[in-house]
Each structure stands twice: as structure tokens, then as C-alpha cells.
Amino acid sequence: MERHLKIATYNIHKGMSTFNRRHTLHDLKIALDSLRADLVFLQEVQGEHRRRAERHADWPDQPQHSFLAGDHDHVYGRNAVYHGGHHGNAVLSRYPIVGWHNLDISVNRLERRGLLHASIQVPHWPVTLHALCIHLNLRSGDRRMQLAALIEYVREQIPAESPLVMAGDFNDWRHEATRTLHDGLGLQEAFQQVHGRVAASFPAHMPVLMLDRIYLRGFTVQAAEAHRGLPWSRLSDHAPLTAIVRLNEPALAAA
């Protein structure tokens, strides 16, 4: 039974370059495919943008989450809706997604945010894998309220013995989320487990801010990497993160 997963998280900046001068979707798909991830968490995914579709002759006919998913199963949570389009989070999975839910965790009208929860059945695993894709607000007070909502949701909706991956753009420049999620849910951050600190991922051309995270429960982290330099620095304003993890024995025994 295969117990390893490769996880990726990436804020794709709506498929546009850092200053919105060009769209990056075709190169972005090639780069994402090169990661060979089993489970991909995407933020700022453009479900629709009619003006950009009209402006760019090679804009894909499919929504971005469908275009980038390829053969992967996928779900999309619409968070921000505006004239001519909408964007949100997406989860792409090599394995079947057997259920999903998008929870509105917005705390103001300017930043529309959501928690996208996908339930995934990995072949031959006797337990369901729960994947939560997150994008939190810029203000620390807003993030504290959103983290409280995340903790409440997980406690109510996900069994404590189930393996859990929570990943995304936490905008956590004050470094509060890791302790909050550890104390509230027993989650461990992948990069901190391997490297002793969380990863710098923003801005993509010279990452200094540690905004993106991969939190885990029920797994052992074997490797974690922030993907910097080309081609990533030309594809978005964030750098993607990946982690290779192994399902723990207790998660199997609990089944």
C-alpha cells in the first residue's frame, strides 16, 4: 500500500504575472505538472474573467481550475464575485474526491475568503484524507477570527483520527498561525518540521515573507521545498511550496 503523498500549495495570482502585464496560464500548467504532486492546493484561482478572456487570444476556454487540473480530480470554491467574473480556491487531486464543501470565512466586504474542504479516497487507505485549502486576510485581527472559525469547523466536521492537510496562503507575517493551529488542532507545519522554520514564499522574485504554509495531522514529513527562481518567479507573485509526507501508522490503526 502506497502511504506517501507529494503535496503542493500555490497562490497563482489569478493566472497573471506579478504586475498583471501578461497571463501565465499555459506556462503555469507546464510548471505545475512538473512538480508531479498528488495533491495541489491553489489560491486566487480565476473561475471566470470575461474581460481577460476577451483580451487574450490564448486564454483557455475552461475555468482555470479545470485547465490546470488536467487528469486530476478537482473542486473549486467561489469566494469573490464581481462584474464579469469570480475567483476562489481549488483543490486538485490525483485520487478521487468523494465530497467537498466551501465555507465562507469572510469577515469584511473587501476581502472575500473561503475554506475549501475536499474529502479524498486514496486507494487502499482505510481512512478518508481531508484536505482544506485556505486563503486568509491581510489584517492580523481578521486572521485570528478566521483561524478560530477554521478550528471550530475542523473540530465539528472532521474526525480527530482522520489524516488532515491544511494548506494555502495564510498571510501570516506575524507568525501566529502555527502555534494557534498546533494548540487548537494538533497540526504541525511541514517546513518547520524539516527546516526548523516556515518557508519564505513572497515575493516570488526574492522571497522574504513567510506567508504560505502546509499544516498536517497524521503524517510524518520527509522533505519540504520552496520552489524559487525560474520559471516560478515569472508565473505569480508567490513561490509554490511542496512537501513529501508519509501516512503514520496510528492513522491506519484507527481505522
Automatic annotation (TrEMBL):
InterPro entries: Endo/exonu/phosph_ase_sf (IPR036691), Endo/exonuclease/phosphatase (IPR005135), GPI-anchor_lipid_remodeler (IPR051916)
Record-annotated Endonuclease/exonuclease/phosphatase domain positions: 8-238
Annotated GO MF terms: endonuclease activity
One of the Pfam families matching this protein, by short name: Exo_endo_phos
Entry keywords, A to Z: Endonuclease, Hydrolase, Nuclease
Listed SUPFAM superfamilies: DNase I-like
Keyword Heme: no
PANTHER family, A to Z: CALCOFLUOR WHITE HYPERSENSITIVE PROTEIN PRECURSOR, PGAP2-INTERACTING PROTEIN
Protein's UniProt name: Endonuclease/exonuclease/phosphatase family protein
Organism field: Chitinimonas lacunae
